[in-house]
Amino acid sequence: MNMRRAVKRHELTPEASADVARIEAAFKQARDAFGQAGSFLFGDFSGADAMFAPVVNRLHVYDVAVTAATRAYMDAMMALPAWQDWSAQAQAEPWTIGKYEAA
Length: 103
Hints:
Elements lengths: L13 H21 L12 H15 L6 H12 L1 H12 L11
């Protein structure tokens, strides 16, 4: 996951929009069934949240329009100390890769 990519809105293809809708439906299903006890998919932070970290990052950096519930989940993920540490370490990296250089 590229934590150095600048946030920039991208127009989604119909296929990508369908994928976002599918992801949001999965997030909603997990939160509705198991997430009442916390801010994450199954309440407390779990392996499922760790696995979705790259997805949260992609939704964020591509500035994808999401539901309020998905945005709240993303905000909870991005507020984690580990997320903040990953982001700080990514910004401190001295190397660049062509078009993926931090803006």
